[in-house]
Specification:
Layout (H helix, E strand, L loop, with lengths): L1 H22 L2 H4 L1 E6 L7 H15 L5 E6 L4 H9 L5 E5 H9 L12 E17 L14 E3 L7 H13 L7 E3 L3 H9 L5 E6 L4 H8 L4 E3 L4 H10 L4 E5 L11 E13 L4 H14 L1 H7 L22 H9 L15
Parallel strand pairs: 1-2, 1-3, 5-6, 5-7
Antiparallel strand pairs: 3-10, 4-7, 4-8, 4-10, 9-10
Length: about 350
């Protein structure tokens, strides 16, 4: 009798599912795209939320649902792409290239399923310090407690190169604290660290909070000679000028080092939805996106793939750019299109 009841229940449940899918087949076809970003105090996270919301509004009839979530940053995002835990992410363009090529920290463990979708904003490498800590230049970080971002973030990728070339230092010369951007800001304000790394588009929420706070802060600047020295070793670095009044009480321009950020996708994400997302970014909602965050003001189709190298584009992106008269170099064509 119990067996008969269980079988009846199973039949009823199966029948209900088939009925629901028959009257609303869209339910069966919904696919989910999660965009991994970074710490909530940086730029990756709010921009990821803007993208996910905009895609959701504009592509609601596509059969896809979009979301964004915070993460440990570029390295963690790439590992999630490798494991197919996510479909898209915002990542520094440099880690994408090194991961795809299997060099540096990715030697012997290349991430071959990552694909560029678009070039985004220059990510300013901002090293903010407490003025009363006695720090004035990079060499003064020696022996200090420095928040270098989350362990899987861009700070662990970019800072070792900068410290070595500008000050002849490594992470062994100071006490690195692996904190997210929000926690780094709090640590500065509570005088638990002497300086912190905030690598993001401008303006960066965490840096704004620090400049507006009661603990006086400054930012490490780099001379043209220092920037050129870093670029000789790592050509992907670039000069970034943070214009005065970008942050509260910032009374002069600040010259720092930066790198390009990028939107990436897992290679198996459908070509058609990648194409449609790029249509939303560069055709239908470009002006609206530019108004939603300072980092997005530079978006333009002319610069959509500028600064991307070392890894290929997604096939859906290649088709979109070609259809819109953007010259795609052979180096960005993915192997599946050759």
């Amino acid at each position: 009798m119990k067996m008969l009841k269980r079988n009846i229940v199973k039949i009823v449940l199966i029948s209900l599912c088939l009925f629901v899918l028959t009257i609303n087949p869209v339910i069966a076809a919904v696919k989910f795209v999660s965009i991994a970003t970074g710490s909530t105090g940086g730029t990756f996270y709010p921009v990821g939320v803007i993208f996910a919301t905009t895609f959701g509004d504009e592509l609601k009839d596509s059969g896809y649902r979009f979301s964004a979530h915070a993460s440990g940053g570029s390295s963690e995002n790439l590992e999630m792409i490798r494991n197919k835990e996510i479909k898209m992410a915002i990542v520094g363009s440099v880690p994408v290239a090194t991961a795809y090529q299997g060099v540096g920290e990715y030697e012997g463990k290349a991430i071959e399923n990552v694909r560029f979708v678009a070039s985004l904003w220059p990510e300013a490498i901002q090293l903010v310090y407490r003025i009363n800590s006695g720090i004035e230049r990079l060499a003064d970080f020696k022996g200090r407690k420095i928040a270098v971002g989350p362990a899987a973030g861009g700070g662990s990728i970019y800072l070792p190169i900068i410290f070595k070339e500008v000050a002849g230092m490594t992470f062994d010369d100071f006490n690195p604290q692996y904190l997210g951007y929000d926690n780094s800001v709090q640590a500065i304000q509570n005088r638990l660290v002497d300086a912190c790394y905030q690598g993001a588009g401008l303006p960066t929420a965490g840096v704004s909070q620090l400049y507006a706070g009661q603990v006086p802060v400054g930012m490490i600047e780099f001379t043209n000679e220092e920037i050129e020295k870093v670029k000789k070793v790592a050509p992907y670095f670039t000069r970034v000028v943070i214009e005065r009044e970008t942050y509260p009480k910032q009374d002069k321009d600040l010259q720092v080092i930066g790198v390009k950020s990028s939107l990436v996708a897992e290679k198996d994400l459908d070509d058609d939805i990648v194409y449609k997302m790029l249509e939303v970014i560069y055709k239908t909602k470009l002006d609206a996106l530019k108004k939603q965050h300072g980092a997005l003001k530079i978006l333009s189709l002319d610069e959509a793939i500028l600064g991307l190298s070392g890894a290929p584009l997604h096939p859906g992106a290649v088709k979109f750019y070609r259809d819109n008269n953007v010259d795609v170099p052979d180096s960005l064509i993915p192997p599946e299109m050759k």
